[in-house]
Structure formats: structure tokens, C-alpha cells
Amino acid sequence: MAEKYELRRFRAVGKDSADYAQGTAWLRGVGIGFYDEPRKDEFVDKIMAMYRVDNREMTGVYQPDGVAAHSLSADVPVATFATLRKDLNIGYGRQLEAQLVTAVTVRGTHRRQGLLRRMMTEDLAAAKADGVALAALTASEASIYGRFGYGVATFERSIKVDTGPRFRLRHEPVGSVEIADRKVLLDLAPEVFARVQRAMPGSISRQEAYRLRSSGTLGRDGSEDEAIRCALHYDAAGSVDGYVSYKFAGWDAKPYTMEIVDLVAATDAAYLELWQFLGSIDLVERISWQDAPVDDPLTWALEDPRCVESSDQRDMLWLRILDPLRVLGARRYSADGTLVLAVRDSLGFAAGTFALAVSGGVATVTPAPEAEPELSLDVADLGSIYLGAVCPVTLTAAGRITEHAPGAALTARLMFAVERSPHCLTHF
Ligand SMILES: CC(=O)SCCNC(=O)CCNC(=O)[C@H](O)C(C)(C)COP(=O)(O)OP(=O)(O)OC[C@H]1O[C@@H](n2cnc3c(N)ncnc32)[C@H](O)[C@@H]1OP(=O)(O)O
Asked: Which residues does UniProt mark as catalytic (predicted)?
């Protein structure tokens, strides 16, 4: 069924190009899929400009035989899909290029005809042929992407922090925090984030939209957001090593709340001192943050950890391994040991048996089709344990991983651990 549709891939072009309208019609298709309000032309132009910076590839699926009378024009795709390539921190500062998948929609009238399956399998095959070893996405629903070999690899949560009298942080400041003009983030945000990218397992380098949103240059409706404020953290030597951009929720919202738009800290001290600043804002009783880490130093630094109200803990980054030899070989491991992994992959990209031998943290990975596996797992589960955020022992208890050699899951847990809890601050 899905084969009869025409599938086109293209990249964003400048406004003066004859192909510009193809991209804007594609964006309209995405808006239909996600029930967005139609965007003004100016906003669309800004989005297209960002897509150019990120070199995003758009895929559109089009009606093969024209469209029915009164239907949307044939230029608007019935299904959309987009990719961009960014680096993923895979632990100990190592980076691996990932195919990021986003903007997946299939129009309600065309669902369950295999359009997603076609777009996804063709894209994964093309990425693998292009030498990309893994793909990643964030999922609207947790039941969609496992069948394509994606596994949950990091988590996040929403928090509300009571900044009333209970809020006291056990931390002696080593730097300082200053309010700044929000526009300084256009330059500073990417610089600070680049340091986080080098240090934080699970981090993904950011697309252009982030510095524009954090600085209030691109608000939710596409215009400047004058309500965004910004504070910078300076280390003892006076260099900026962290920032927070934030917005007051208004005098009608009780308790009076400051919403974090973006909080990025390159050091532990910067993180805690930005929180000290947030906790000290007069008249504000609560700070809310949608992108908080699950394993959060804030909770442990507070004299009263119950100041933090946590909700909606959820899957964040999903990984799809395409080339196990490269992906396993690229990592540094926390413990020495050997493991024979039998990997299943219904799409065939990563199936096989692989011997992983680690000495001094350095891996040697070889195909081992004749070896007795110690662990058998689906490629989605390999994606889950890859960044050290999901425990192989738990996946064994859940019946997802089969342990053939006693203790192999624990060995995997120790080997795949990373230097600090993985967290991804980049949504795409
Ligand atoms: C990375 C991102 O962009 S996440 C955003 C995903 N998009 C959305 O949530 C927007 C609203 N939903 C949609 O646009 C569509 O329903 C999609 C994209 C989720 C699915 O597209 P479809 O073309 O209908 O999927 P397709 O027909 O290829 O189905 C492939 C398989 O996934 C299954 N599937 C599809 N959607 C869902 C779902 N929401 N939940 C569970 N299973 C699903 C199908 O049953 C099918 O299973 P099978 O191959 O084992 O038979």
C-alpha cells in the first residue's frame, strides 16, 4: 500500500529559490500532523532559515494520483519525516555522530498503511549506507518505535521547586551570578553548551533553534519574546560557565512561579549557584523546569530535598544502533571484562553475535558467529543499555535480555556504566 506513494527528500533552500515553496508546504504538513495552529509567513521563513543552518533533510510523502476536490493541495505531503546529524556524547567525552529523526507525521486519513514503516526503514538504510552508526529520536508515544529497533536510553522529569523559607542549599559559592541582557545568549549559549556537550554522557549537540529560543529571539509565536530574562554564572576567574533563561508565569498564577526556559551549567558549582540564584528571587515562590535530570544534584544539595516536587518522569532519548561493531568499539568502558552478545534485529541492520573484550577501559569488538552468547538481546535493548542509564540486570529481570552465563548481566552493568548519570538537554 505504502509503495504507491511518491516519496521526496529535499533540504531547505533560500527564499529566492524556486524550490522554497516545497519546504513551506512540507512544514504545513507537519503542522497538520501535530495539530499546530497555522504559522504566519514570517515565522515559517525563520524556521526555514534554521533548517538551513542545521542542514536538515526533509522527507515528504505525496499522493500518487492527485488529490480529491476540496482536499488540501497536492503540494502538502500526507506524511512527513526529517533528519539532521548531530554528535552524541557516549561517555568519557567521546562523541559519535547520530542520525536524529524528527517531525514524523502521517495524516489521519492515511494512517496505518505502512507510511511510517516505509519512511523509517528507508531512512535507516540510507543512514547506515552513509556510515552513520546510530540513530536517535524522542517519541510522542512509547509504543511506536521499539518495533524499529529503538530503545529508551535516557530519561527526564518535570520539577517544581518550592523556593520559600525551606529552600536552603548546602553549597559555598565559588563564583557569582549576574543578570544580563537576554541577547548575550545568542553567542554565549552555544559556547556554554559546547562545554556541557563535552562533559555530559547522553548529551546531543544542539540545533540552531536553541540559542534563538533561550535568548528570546524566537518566541513560541515566532516573534521576539520580551518576557525572557537571563542570568549568567561566572567562575572564580570571571569566565561564563553557566546560564539560565527564565520567564515569570504572571501574577495570576499562584504560587508565583518562575519558569525555566533553559538551564545549562558546565560545572557542578555553576549548576548549584544558578539554583541558589533562582531560589533567591524576591516575590517568587516556585521555580518550574520541564527538562530536569532524574538523577539531580539539586535534590541532594538541598537541606530539605522535599522542596523538589517531581512529576512526569519519562523516557527522553531513544537510540537505534545500526552498526554494533562501530558503536561498541567507540565507547570507553568503566570495567574490564569480556562479553559475547547475540543481537537480534528484525530489520537486519545490526543482527549478529559480537565478542566485546575490554582491557584498561579500551574495547576490542569482533564478530563471533560461532561463539556461545552470554547475553541475547534485541537491538533496542542494546540501545537502552548503551549509555549506562538503563540497567541490564533490570532488563534481564523484565525478560527482555536473556542471560546464558550467570552474572553476565551484572558484568554488562559494570562495563557499560559511564562517569556520571547521562542526561540529554536537547529536544529535537
Ligand atoms: C520522532 C517523532 O517525530 S515522534 C512523533 C510521531 N508522530 C505523532 O505522534 C503524530 C500523530 N501520529 C501519526 O502521525 C501516525 O499515527 C504515526 C506516525 C505515529 C504512525 O504512522 P503510520 O503510517 O500510521 O504507521 P505505520 O502504518 O507505518 O505503522 C507501522 C507500525 O507501527 C504501528 N503503530 C503506528 N502508530 C502506532 C501508535 N501510535 N502506537 C502503537 N503502534 C503504532 C502500526 O500498528 C504498525 O505495526 P506493525 O508494522 O507491527 O503492523
From this structure: 145 (proton donor), 428 (proton acceptor)
